[in-house]
Each structure stands twice: as C-alpha cells, then as structure tokens.
Amino acid sequence: MTTASPAAHPIPHHTASGTTRRRRWWREVGWRYPLAVVFLVYAAFPLVYVISSALARSGTLVGTSGLFRTFTMENFQAVNDTKFWAWMGNTVVIGVITSLGTVLMAASAAYAFSRFRFKGRRTSLTSLLILQMFPQTVAFVAIFLLLVSLGSVVPVLGLNSRLALICVYLGGALGANAFLMYGFFTSIPQELDESAKIDGATHAQVFWRIIMPLVTPILAVVALLGFITVFGDFVLAKVILQSPENWTLSVGMYQWVSSELSANWGLFAAGAVIAAIPVLVLFMSLQRWIVGGLTAGSVKG
Amino acid sequence: MAVDTGVVPAPARESHATRWRGHGVGFMVKLALMALVNAMGLMVAFSAWRIEAWGIFTGSVVLLVVIDWIYFSRRMVPLKYLAPGVAFLLVFQIFTMAYTAYVAFTNYGAQHNVTKGQAIEVLLLQNERKVEGTALYPLTFVQRGDELGLAIVDQGGVRVGSAQAPLTDAPDAVVAGTTVTQLPGWDVIDTKRLYSDTDLANALQDLRVPVSEDPNDGSVRANNLSQAAVYRSVLVYDADTDTMVNVDTGVVYRATEEGFFRAEDGSRLGTGWRVYVGFDNFRRGFIDGDYVGPLLQITAWTFVFAVATVLSSFFLGLILALIFNDPRIKGRTIWRTLLILPYAFPAFLSALLWRGMFNARFGIINDWLGTISGWFGGGDVYIPWLQDPTLAKFVILWVNLWLSYPYWFLVCTGALQAVPAETVEAARIDGATRFRLFRSVQLPLLLVSTAPLIIASFAFNFNNFTVVYMLTSGDPTFPNASIPLGQTDILITAIYQISGVAAGSSSVADYGLAAALSIIVFVVIGALSALAFRQTKKLEEMA
Q1: Domains (ranges, CATH) in chain A?
Q2: Which among A13, A29, B252, B308 is least buried, having the fewest CB atoms inside 10 angstroms?
Q3: Cβ contacts (< 8 Å) between B428 and chain A: which residues?
Q4: pTM of the full predicted structure?
C-alpha cells in the first residue's frame, strides 16, 4: 500500500505545540480507530459466536449466548457420526472436477478467440458476452426437466447424479470465465507463438507448452473462483441431488438447520467451522488475486 | 525463445508426406479421448432409441457427428478449441433457456405432466377393473433376472409376459396339471418363497402384464396365488372422435384444448397432458388469479432488496475504504484482513448462522437484548425477527449487508488508490476541503470504475437465492394459504416454490408458471445489462 493518499503531505511539526498536535492527529487520524472498532465488532462477532457455539457443551442453541463458557470437542466428534464427511467429499470432488473442467474449457476457448481469426469470431464473442449475463440458476426448472428426460435414457446423467451436477456447472463455464481469460491471453505477445510456429510447433504445442505456462496465474484464479462458486452453490445442488449420501455441504447443512435448528445447533456450528476453514485459508492467501479477478472479469463484461 | 517442440522442422518446399514421422503422443491421446466420447455418445443414442426418446436421440447423434467432424477434419482449428465448452453451453445453458421459454407457454405441471399419448395410456391403466364374470386362468409366477413375469395356461397353451412385454405364446413350456414347471428363458418361482419374501409377493401382486400392445385390450393380473384374471379399463379411448367413454356409466369425455378429457357436465378425468396455453401463465401471474397480489408484492420486494443491498453495502464499503485510505493508520493490513472476513466465510454458512442468531426463542440477539433490558428492570425480550414480515425483511437486508460490504470495501480501496495523486494534490492546492475533494474528485472517478460492478452486483442480488432461502425460506407465508409463497420471497425463490421441484413430489408442481416467472427475470436482467453497457460508455465519456 505505497500509493500516496490525500493526507500524505508533511505536517509542520516544529510550529505546533503538544496539544494542537494531538488535536490535529485526532482530527485527521485518531477518529478512524473507534469507528474501525465498531465495524470490526459487526464483522467479526458472528464468527466469534460460531466458534464459541462449536465449543459449547450444550450442543443446542439454548445456552450458547454466554460466549466461551464451556469448552468441549463433543460437537466435533458428533459431526463424525453424521454424513458430514461424505458431503464434504462430494463438495470437494464436484468442486475440483468442475474447476478443472472450467479452466480447460475456458482457456482453450480464450486461446481460440485470441490466436485465430475466423469467420464468426466477433459474433461468437458478442453472443458469449450477452449469454454470460443470464445466470444459469434462473433456468433451474428447465434444467430439472431436462435431467428428468436425460435420466430416463442414461440414469447417470439424470436427477440425483453428481456427474449430472458437474455437467450442469460446466454449462456455465464458458460464459463466466472465457472473457476474463480472453483479456489475459491477448496480453501475451503473439510473437512468442509465431516464433514457436516457425520452429515447427503445432497449434496444440503452442497452446500447451507456450501459452498455458504463461497464463498459470489466471488459470489458478479461475480454478479457485470456480471451486468457491461450487462450494457455495445451493439451488442447483438442491434441485439435482436428492438422496442424502449425494448431497453437497450446502444442501446437507441447510437440512440440519431447517429441520431442527435448535437441536442441531452444536452440530451445525462445528460443521461450519470445519467447512469454512479451507475456504477461508484459500481466500485469504489468494485475496489479491481473487479481487483482481472479480473486478477484471466484471469490467470486461 | 527456444522451444522443444518434439517435431523436426521441415526444410522449405518439402511436402507434407515426407514430414511424416508417425503419430505423436498427442494424437494418441486425442484418439483415445475421441473413442471415449464416441462410445458414450453412441450409448446415449442407443438407449434413447430404445425408449423412443427422439429429442435426446436426435440431439446426441447431431452433437456426435459435429464433434467427430470437427476433430477429424484438418481445418476448423479454432473450433477444436471451442467445441467442448460450446457443447456444454449449448446443452446446459442455451437449450435450458430456450426450453424455459417453451415451458412458459404451456400448462406443464402436476396435472399436465405428460404428452397426450402417455396421458391416455395412464388413464386406461389407472381405470382397469377386473372384468365381471371373467374366466380365471391357472397362474405360475416366473422371473428372468430382475424382471418378474406371469405365465398362464390358456386353452391348453401357455402364454407368458411381464410388465414391459405383453403376453406371448410359449409353445415349449412344460405343464404339469395346471402348473407350469418349466419355461425356456424364465425361472419358475416357487410359491412357497412368497410366504417368506413379502417384497416379492407384493411386487407380484401389483404386476400388470398387458394382453397386447393396445392398452384398450387390458391386462392380466394375479387374482390369487394360483389364478390370474383379465382386467380391462372401464374407459375406452376412441381415436377417431378423440373421446374417452366410460363403459360402465356411458359418460363420454371429450379431449379439450386445456389438456383434459372433460364430460358434458363439466367433470373431468384426473390425468391431463401439456398443451400450448399462450400467455395464460403470465396472465395468471400478474393479471388475475390467486397469485397476482403476492407476486406483485414479491416483485416489488425483489427490487427493493436488490437496490437496498447494493446501495447499503456500497456505501458501507466506501466509508471503510475512506477510513482506511490513510497511511498513518497503524496495522492497516490487519484491520483490512479482519474486516473482509465475512466475505471469505461461505455465504450459505453465514446465512444459516444468522438464522440461529436471530432465532426468536433461543437466539443470542434476543438473549442479549433480554439481559440489557434486565439491567433496566425489564423482562425477557421476544422479538419475532424472522416471523414478522417487516422485521424479516430488515434482517435479510442486515445480513446481506454483512455479506456484501467487504467486496465493496476491497473494490473501493482499489479504486481510491487508482485516483492519480497529482489530481488530488492539484485539488488541495486549489483549496479544496476534504469533503469537496471527495465529492468532486474522488467520487466521480470512483463511480466511473465501479459503475459496471454496481450493475453486476444488482443483477447478482436480484437472484440471490441463497441468502433469502437460507435465512427465512421465504417465510412468513401470505395469509392466503392456497399458494406456496411467503412475504420475504424474492422472484427466484418464488420460482423455486411454485415449480415444486423442492418437494420431490410433483403434486404441487406448476412448471408453466415458474418458467413464465423465469422469463420475467431474464427480461429484467437483460434490460439491466443493456443499460449497464450504455451507462458505462456515458460515464467514460464524462470522465
């Protein structure tokens, strides 16, 4: 954070006495601290509360209001007796496959758009741009009906199939990410692949050995965003996955809270802590990338 | 840049043929992948053919041919890279959007779930009764693999069939008295097994073997363990007049345009079929009927929700960005990290967490408010946060603010830092106050760079299913109990409730109305995106 800010110009120390200096400090900087504390309480309180609930002995919503009164790992152990880890496994598998597929498909589409001049290129780019504005989730009724018919032909692509859910997610892969990648791909000089072509490289070799290594950062961002999106998706997973052993975390944990909120509270809190940690770590360590990706993608759109 | 391409560079003017060095690894991988794709595609096409799902059959064959053409042709290199993504896009996004539009103009739903042919079949099947005074046929239960069947002795010959396969003659069967003892291709089920295996007994009890391909001919079913009877529908379908006649009562049901068989007196048969209904769904949703009042309220609330969320979170984020946009603050990185925590916490977990905190009976918020009121001599506090419509809306906005402000904090911080230092300095020298500097320099520049994000965020929140559904599930419900909607529902959650895909049972499903609402959402989003484009251009010109 080295960029100059409005108040960065030097303050004339030698003329000010102690009190005026303090008053001035308070007027320009000091007031920010109490406000920051207020917002910090707003931001962090629910998170502190969920940790306290996860460690509380009662296991229900009753009696979780006294923060950190009791410490026990019982809630975490109780999680093991549920399908939680199966849901976690489903979420991770679906998320990883989806994000890998998304990266591959979006990267190859971006390669095609940035490196080839073909008929209908502009039209397809514009159509993609328009398409990406319409979120897939709004069409979930049609997706449901499509999977009902597909399922009668190939059960593995029907309702209640994790593979079908992955396919549905992959349907949204191009729209959301091809543009983000396209911008990045065009910033890589064409001379690189041209020289490789002169050396006899095929288009596939240019793609895999020259372009892909150079765009690794954006691939990582797209993969990560893809994973976090799948992790947080509820409606498509809820519509498609029906039996509890196929659920993802969001569907399963919603079930806990919606059916028996008070009784399952300890379970939920412990599960939430476990589920949030990997995402939190991923997000925080790659914060700068994610935010860059988010804004760049949207500006392009 | 030296690149090891693995291919020996060809001298000029050498023909392609002499460059042939055999296929590389890449080609083998491609071949294997294509073999896999073709195998799967053909499998889908075959099973679609078998159950006569012509839409899927055509779709899979066309897709397969196009993919093979793209990858085995020497041209169309760009398409080789676009094809996988486009294939998924076509099936799971473009097709589903088009299908939504189609469903919106039909009465597809619980009572109109199938095509007319299927509806006729279902009606005939549902109305089958044992034919009065019918002959009883000696019966033997048989099976092949998982498929259960009935074998009957009819005029000395044996006939056998299952639920899928109508009765056929079995000339090679061995009959002892009235019992079939051997039947080629089938295993005879010993009746003693039925006493211990009740599942099997029930399955056989319910087994219905069609007499022929024509549903009007009825079926054969087990009457008891050793005898079968012929069942025939009390309804008879006449294709020429397109009517169903109840042979018991003589009532004639005529096929109507609404997708039902209806009699003169207005009564109708239960199962209908889907038909084109024009703008009927839109009329039901927004002009007259039970849904109109609630849906108009829900639409208004959807807009309020999206606008209020974007505005509140943008301003809170902006305020925080301004507060922390001063290098003299100690530990800025730590403050920032802590303040964006809500954004890193998965949204569905946050919503569920707040749902517990706002719980009226045991939630921490009412509990602490109760403690505070205790200090002043008050009693327990019971505020129905999620049960009162107004309060519930407030809670949704509050939680969504919590979820979204860090995004704007990050975006605004970036945008503020991108404001050129010279511009700020120049304004200061000209004597601008801090407010003036913000109002006339920083804010306009900030709006230029964030305007597209603001519109994108509006579009996102317009469909923010997770927050609303996780927090309130749309509750409290509207006083009119005949519809499945609640007062905090936004359009996308209303679509979910109306579509009935949640319940698992299709008894409440109304796909037509749900799809019509989806179309409305698409139109709003589309209009908004168009506006976003123009607005972005305008702001850029201004800047």
Answers
A1: 25-78 (no CATH), 83-300 (1.10.3720.10)
A2: A13
A3: 6, 9
A4: 0.81
**pLDDT over 70 at A6, yes or no:** no
In this prediction, residue A248 carries a pLDDT of 92
Residues of A in contact with B10 (CB under 8 A): 200
CB-based contact, A184 to chain B, within 8 Å: no
What's the pLDDT score for residue A298? 39
Strand pairing of B137-144 and B227-233? antiparallel
What ipTM is given for this predicted complex?
0.84
- For position B378, what pLDDT does the model report? 74
Q: Which residues between 87 and 116 in chain A have a beta carbon less than 8 angstroms from any beta carbon of chain B?
A: 104-106, 108-109, 111-113, 116
User: Which residue of chain A has the CA closest to B102?
Assistant: A142
> How far apart, in whole angstroms, are the C-alpha atoms of residue B55 and residue B42?
15
More reliable by pLDDT, A290 or B483 = B483
**What is the model's pLDDT at position A290?**
62
CB of A265 within 8 Å of a chain B CB? The answer is yes
Of A187, A136, A169, A171, residue with least CA distance to A296: A187
Q: Which of A124, A153, A280 sits opposite B53 (nearest CB)?
A: A153
Q: Calculate the alpha carbon distances from B248 to B129, B132, B245 in Å.
A: 11, 11, 9
- pLDDT 10s digits, B79-128: 888 888 888 988 888 898 898 888 888 888 777 777 777 777 777 777 77
Residue B469: its chain A contacts at CB < 8 A? Answer: 234-235
CB pair distance less than 8 Å for B434 and A299:
no
Higher per-residue pLDDT: B307 or A260: B307
CA closest to B515 among chain A residues: A141
d(CA B488, CA B469): 9
Exposure string over B16-47, b if 16+ CB within 10 A, otherwise e: eeeeeeeeeeeeeebeeeeeebeeebeebbeb
Q: Is A301 touching B (CB cutoff 8 A)?
A: yes
Instruction: Give the span between the Cα atoms of A81 and A73, in whole angstroms.
Output: 14
Task: Map out the domains of chain B as residue ranges.
Answer: 24-104, 118-263, 292-542
**Cβ contacts of A1 on chain B, cutoff 8 Å:** 327, 332-333, 417
Classify domain B118-263 by CATH architecture: Beta Barrel (2.40)
Overall fold of domain B292-542: MetI-like fold (1.10.3720)
The answer to whether B69 and B75 are in contact (CB under 8 A) is no
Strand partners, B158: B153
CB contact under 8 A, A138 and B514: no
Max CA pair span of chain A: 85
The per-residue pLDDT for B214 is 76
Kindly state the DSSP code that residue B109 receives in the 8-state scheme: B
The pLDDT of residue A7 is 46
**pLDDT for B216 beyond 80:** no
Residues A145/B509, Cβ–Cβ less than 8 Å: no
